[in-house]
Every structure is written in C-alpha cells, then in structure tokens.
Amino acid sequence: IGKLGTKTHVIMFAIGGFLVGVGVQGIYGANIGEVFGAISMMSLSGWLIIPFICLGIYAMKPIYLKYKDK
User: Fold this and answer.
1) Torsions phi, psi of 30, nearest 5?
2) Are 7 and 67 in contact (CB under 8 A)?
C-alpha cells in the first residue's frame, strides 16, 4: 500500500478512526477539543479528562503492539 504502511496498519487506522467517530457522536464533541477548549477556559473538566485519555492510551497499547508489525 506504499507510504501508508502495511494492510494491517491501514485496517487498524480505519477501525480506530471509526471508533473515534462513534465516540464523538456519543459525547457530542472530540477529546482533543475538550482538552484544549476546556483548559483554555480554566474548566475542571479539561483537567479531569487528561488522566482518563492517558489511561485509555495505556490500556490500548498492548493491543497496538501486538498487531503493529503484522
């Protein structure tokens, strides 16, 4: 597939993008927008969401590492 990576990477990115889209529809906004928008307005929700995003990344890292080289 050229510069995009292996077929597995493209499939993983597509699934990840789909899940982000589903999440955005469920909470009526995006995580990055929440972080930057809420922190810039000194909202507590912006500071509280950061550890949970980090926990989600930490929880998904083993799955990513398992499939990244296939």
Assistant:
1) -105, 150
2) no
Asked if pLDDT for residue 55 goes beyond 80, the answer is yes
What's the rounded mean pLDDT across residues 43-60? 80
| pLDDT attached to residue 1 | 47
Q: Which of 14, 1, 12, 25 is closest to 66 using CA atoms? A: 12
- Cα dist from 3 to 7, 9, 16, 29, 68, whole Å: 11, 11, 19, 31, 15
Question: How far is the C-alpha of 58 from the C-alpha of 55, rounded, in Å?
Answer: 5
Average pLDDT of the chain? 74
The whole-model pTM stands at: 0.47
- Residue of 1, 6, 17 whose CA lies nearest to 70: 6
Contacts of 49 (CB under 8 A, 6+ apart): 31, 34, 35, 38
